[in-house]
Amino acid sequence: MHPAEINLSSDIDTIIIVDKTADVTKNATNSERVLSAVTSGKLTLNSVVKKEEILNTLVRMVQDSERFTLANDQILSVAIGANNSQNKIGLDSLCRKWGADGVVVLASIEETSNELNSENSSKEPAVQAVWKLFDANGVEVDYAIIKSTLKNSSQRYPNLKNGEKLSISPSSEVAVQYLRRLSPSYYIERRFYYTKGAELMKNGASAMKLEDYSLVKNFWLSLSEEKGLKKKVLRRVAHNLALIYEIEGDFDSALLWAGRAVRMGNAPSLRYEQELIQLVNEQPLISFQLKRK
């Protein structure tokens, strides 16, 4: 888990999600849509922008979050077009109705473009969303513009705490990034471990594929205590044990074994040790950010 980008008051605990991107062109003709796009200065939404995917992704991640409770998994749509009576409903009233402490609002979404190469000015489609967070009194406490492209979305894979991997598109990524702004979140951590050098190393690798981490640790701890092993094998075992302890959430033990691997001369473990140091240093901030009223 990694810290959120901002620190929120613990009073904002239970939230609702509001879509304020609806407009009066929903049932309009094509010419009316074009006129609306011209006057609003925003591009007409096409296949690159999928509003439903944005909102559904946010719902799933909030439901999985340790920081928030979702008061109502129904997306509340409040149109921003003229002469819409719902437009007069205050966010504080919505909070009272649903028993919420805060409101996350998707204020606007549009297709834009992202420069790929400044020399030839080539571009790729991108999604840009404006997000707002209000407290129970309707006071704005956060405002963020999140931009996502096909290129960077293919490189980001959030991991839900239940172990489910969530593949994302540019549309859903603008939801992923915004929740990461508000709440400590799980990421996919890319790690490696050694599988060769001794029979118990191989046995541990086989158990790792089965995600039997207790058995893996037993194999590799036993190997670390064997006499007469080559130093190369011992430092690799130390690296592997650091990984197992990290998986178990024992960062202090993970850092201890990673340090041993480094001191024994396992160069690739140095970067891993630095990453573990960062994780250890982040824990107090994460604990603070996860506090709820």
A few lines on this structure:
It contains ten helices and six strands. It is of the alpha/beta class and 293 residues long. The chain folds into two domains: 169 residues, Double Stranded RNA Binding Domain (2-Layer Sandwich), CATH 3.30.160; 91 residues, Serine Threonine Protein Phosphatase 5, Tetratricopeptide repeat (Alpha Horseshoe).
What does this structure look like?
With 293 residues, the protein is α/β, with parallel strands linked by helices. It folds into two domains: 14-182, Double Stranded RNA Binding Domain, CATH 3.30.160; 199-289, Tetratricopeptide repeat domain (Serine Threonine Protein Phosphatase 5, Tetratricopeptide repeat). It has ten helices and six strands, in the order E-H-H-E-E-H-E-E-E-H-H-H-H-H-H-H. It has helices spanning 30-40, 51-64, 91-98, 150-153, 170-182, 199-209, 213-224, 231-247, 251-263, 268-289; strands spanning 14-19, 69-70, 76-77, 102-117, 122-135, 140-149. Strands 1, 2, 3, 4, 5 and 6 form a six-stranded mixed beta sheet that branches. Strand 5 and strand 6 (140-149) form a beta hairpin. The longest helix is centred in the last third of the chain and has 22 residues, at 268-289.
CATH topology type of the largest domain: Double Stranded RNA Binding Domain
- The count of helical stretches stands at 10
Domain count, please report it: 2
Which structural class is indicated by helix and strand composition?
Answer: alpha/beta
